Amino acid sequence: MRFHHNLLQATVDALHQIFNDGKYADQAIQKILKRDTRWGSRDRGFIAETTYDIVRYKRLYAEIASVKEPFKPADLWRMTAVWIVLKGYEIPAWEEYYNTPVRRIKGRFDELSSIRKYRESIPDWMDELCVAELGEELWTAELAALNKQADVVLRTNTLKTDRKTLKEKLQALEIATTTDDRFPDALILEERANVFQTQLFQDGLFEVQDAGSQTIAPYLRVDSGLRVMDSCAGAGGKTLHLAAIMENKGQIIATDIYKNKLHELKRRARRAGAHNIESRHIDSTKVIKKLDGKMDRLLIDAPCSGIGVLRRNPDAKWKLQPEFIEEIKTTQQEILQSYSRVVKSGGSMVYATCSILPSENEGQVEAFLKSEAGSTFTLQESQSLLAHKDGFDGFYMARLLKN
Ligand SMILES: C[S@@+](CC[C@H](N)C(=O)[O-])C[C@H]1O[C@@H](n2cnc3c(N)ncnc32)[C@H](O)[C@@H]1O
């Protein structure tokens, strides 16, 4: 492989922003990619994938390169040298790579590969927490899967097209996709491509949404005439899916505590041709009180640690803190307690997270059912998706019926 200095310089700069300035990986990469309009899709792919790889394996690469945070530019260059050697490529004869100890890098890799926290690059506290919650064997398998690059998955917007037609239209643009019977609206890209630039995306024919995430809206078992609330709607990934399943009929009330996310939801809904969504900003408890006992269905797509989606956000391994997970668990229970009141008798709700930790999932549902607010609900069914078993992001969902 022939390396280009400016592409590795861009990678080093992106890593600097992510590791030293606390920037989110996707945002730092997007910004760096705007630096040179002459870069083609291969160049952009190289910068993005190399940066993500080094973010994913920060702990391992830093240990092998004998560098410590905060990383100096020379340290980051050494980490890219480790990446090149471990990929089996020849080190370019550049000043930054002068005297790279190739054999030593390989030797250190062999030594450290027997220790999970180095091999899979994970902070001690997260490794310990996940072993305690999931057990050694399951966590070892899941962590390895969470370190693999995620597929790009599209959700066909059935308000505008069907999967077969969309597949053909993408094929005409030389974007090849596969299907998976478990996910009826999903198209999985065979090779990564910038689908956001296509006219098909601008026209609202699909959304980019992991296949695991596509199981949540159908789990709520909605149909056309119902009144549905999506309490933690964010920018509306699941809301748009609900609108499509409901064929634009009935009513969806989408709420969130962040106004800007709801603005984005409205923009996406316009593109998708979803007309049955009404967004409400949660700025006081009144918004929920007004809906007391009025909803046929409630989706709580709760804020969570995001440990199930580390494949997409590998920098979360380094940004998450144990205190945050404790705080978010309190929020999850508060959300269950406060929003569940909107479900009418005979209605149902789904509690979902993109976490694989039982304490954020089954544990929250059990605590809710034991509480006063939960005493009128029964657990009908629950499902966990795991990256190493199901091949997509990790999710949990539970459906509860209101007596
Ligand atoms: C997992 S994200 C939702 C993702 C979104 N449903 C989607 O599919 O794109 C959780 C959302 O919960 C919101 N949130 C946090 N606390 C909340 C609360 N008390 N009430 C409503 N939404 C809340 C966050 O702002 C965030 O957008």
From TrEMBL:
Start and end residues of each SAM-dependent MTase RsmB/NOP-type domain: 142-403
Keyword rRNA-binding: no
PANTHER family the UniProt entry points to: NOP2 YEAST -RELATED NOL1/NOP2/FMU SUN DOMAIN-CONTAINING, RIBOSOMAL RNA SMALL SUBUNIT METHYLTRANSFERASE B-RELATED
Amino-acid positions noted as binding S-adenosyl-L-methionine in the UniProt annotation, renumbered to this chain: 256, 283, 301
One GO molecular-function entry: RNA binding
Gene3D superfamilies: Vaccinia Virus protein VP39
Pfam families cross-referenced by the UniProt entry: Methyltr_RsmB-F, RsmF-B_ferredox
A Gene Ontology biological process term: RNA methylation
Active site: 354 (nucleophile)
Family stated for the protein in its record: Belongs to the class I-like SAM-binding methyltransferase superfamily. RsmB/NOP family.
Family annotation (PROSITE patterns): SAM_MT_RSMB_NOP
Keywords: Methyltransferase, RNA-binding, S-adenosyl-L-methionine, Transferase
InterPro entries linked: MeTrfase_RsmB-F_NOP2_cat (IPR049560), MeTrfase_RsmB-F_NOP2_dom (IPR001678), RCMT (IPR023267), RsmB-like_ferredoxin (IPR054728), SAM-dependent_MTases_sf (IPR029063)
Protein name: RsmB/NOP family class I SAM-dependent RNA methyltransferase
Species annotation: Nonlabens ponticola
